[in-house]
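Would you kindly consider the sequence and fold I have copied below?
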Amino acid sequence: MRTTCALWALAGAVVLSVVLTAQPATAQDRPFYLKDRGPGVPTSMFGTYVQKGEWIAYPFFEFYLDNNYEYSPNEFGFTLDQDFRGRYRESEWLIFLAYGLSDRLAVEMEAAMTRASLVRSPGDLSGMPDKLSEKGLGDVQAELRWMWSKETDRRPGFFSYGEVVLPHHKTKYLIGTPDLETKAGVGMIKGFRWGTITVRAAVEQAGGVFDLGEYAVEYYKRLSKSLCVYAGVEGTQDEIEFISEFQLWLSETVRFKINNAFGLTSKAAGWAPEIGIMVSFPGRR
């Protein structure tokens, strides 16, 4: 409860400070391929780009609802190695921070406070409790983002990123991260008059095991000065979901974001909504 109040207090303080220091936009001066998003390095947040010297803060809430969650009892310390489907719920309060180190390089961090529960399958006879519940620190991760080839009116831009997820809570099987996890990816971005397309893919490592990581095809469009929309298909191996998002700009530096993710495959979460307020602090010009 204290963490929830602290996050909302932080969001309120950030919004107030930015509203008082908002700067005018120069979207009308941008080339057509930057009309939707403006310049900057793409971050891991949909439709969000950070410029040199700029800070971005995004406190948000995310919820996962999955009535067909695949698990194996041995993943939770029990001996039975067999897949079952249970009912999973998770709520997270998160804070995301990004900073533009240069016009090509950015760093970001994200941390979560998590509450999760899993109701076991009726067919699971492993001795696992009917319901597992855990709460505490969730994922803590950092990323480095590099725009190594900038976009032009004819050529797409290319970027790479590396991510590290820190290990913690090795005995909390629902919310903990037992081993150091790393990820490396590459992406391509191109703005058109009808919207901006991003394609990206990554490989990941956890506990010394390498595998295909996330992959996605994304569309982002500014419909007006105050409204942007996003749609994308994102997956990790055989967990694929469709994501839609609306971004309402309250000022030039404050936007309200709400999105919904829907599972397209049986192993993906059934429904995962997200809501938050994103604030940017532009660097000195």
The helical segments are 2-21. Residues 2-274 form one domain. The radius of gyration is 20 Å.
